[in-house]
Amino acid sequence: MVRLLPAIALTLGTGWAVAQNTPAVEWQRNLGGSSDEFGVSIEQTSDGGYIVCGTTRSNNGDVVGNHGNEDIWVVKLNASGSTEWQRCLGGTQPDNGIRALELPGEGYLVLGNVRSNDGDVSGNHGMIDFWLAKLAADGTLLSQRCYGGTLNDASGGIEPTPDGGFILVGGSRSVDGDLTANAGSTDYWVLKIDADFDIQWQRSYGGSSAESAVAVALTSDGGYMINGSSSSDDGDVSGAFGLEDFWVVKLDELGNIQWQRPCGGSDLDLGSTITELSDGSFMAGA
User: Fold this and answer.
1) What is the pLDDT of residue 79?
2) Which domain holds residue 156?
């Protein structure tokens, strides 16, 4: 079962909490340089610090090593918010960060979208590719890999899997390179890779219009839940409500669709998050 949490409930609940018990700010930091920076993810690390991921256009201030356009920017903070290290990743074309996460005892994993095929990036299939990079504990780049085809393939989310690998999701227009099918326009694209970044399986899902996945969650039965957006009502998509729905898809461990559900109304509704709850139902956010 998919549960939809109304936005008004979130707003009212947050307002009540703030009015009753305003939390104290322990610290705050501005990170960046003289141009634009966009933060997209922050996660606490095992040492009590934080790993931050986003995109930078600067090459001054807190930013060192920009490759010449937009770079993926990863910053490691300690528990007090002081910078331990920072790293620009990318090449001479615009490259954007999606998420950085800790690999306990190994370093960090960075997911992004790249247009470059130089600098830190090699193996781009054409236009935009998913890009996965492994960093050492000090931010040194250890390995990287591009995933995609000759058209635009943009990642949206990643989660570690119990076998040491990863599940990646996003949207793809390609039907070559690492891809073998496309239903039309942009599809959900889901890849299961091993610890060495090799593809174990990949699948495209969608209809004749556009779909793009932005979130993935592991499920207790060994499968996966995907959330994103869809403007189709054919192919893998049935029951659409309007112009664009957020589209929840349940996959088994090999990527086969077990069920799917568009959620929304007559206008634009875009998916953002997906979580399995303790009772086996799912919370999908828009």
Assistant:
1) 98
2) 148-286
Cβ neighbors of 228 (< 8 A, separation 6 or more) are 156, 169, 171, 188, 211, 212, 213, 214, 215, 246, 247, 270, 271
Residue 195, both tokens: 């610890």
Is there a contact between 190 and 168 (Cβ–Cβ < 8 Å)? yes
Neighbours of 224 (CB within 10 A): 23
End-to-end distance of the chain based on CA atoms, in angstroms? 16
Q: Is the pTM of this model over 0.70?
A: yes
In a domain, 15, yes or no: no
State how many domains the chain has: 2
DSSP state of 83: E
| Residues 6+ away with beta carbon under 8 Å from 198 | none
**24 vs 48, 63, 112, CA distance in Å?**
18, 29, 33
Task: Give yes or no: residues 275 and 159 share one domain.
Answer: yes
CB 231 within 8 A of CB 209: yes
Quick one: 241 exposed, middle or buried, by C-beta within 10 A (0-12, 13-18, 19+)? middle
Does 19 map to a domain? no
In the chain, which stretches have pLDDT less than 70? 1-20
Q: What is the pLDDT of residues 50-67, one digit of tens each?
A: 999 999 999 999 999 999
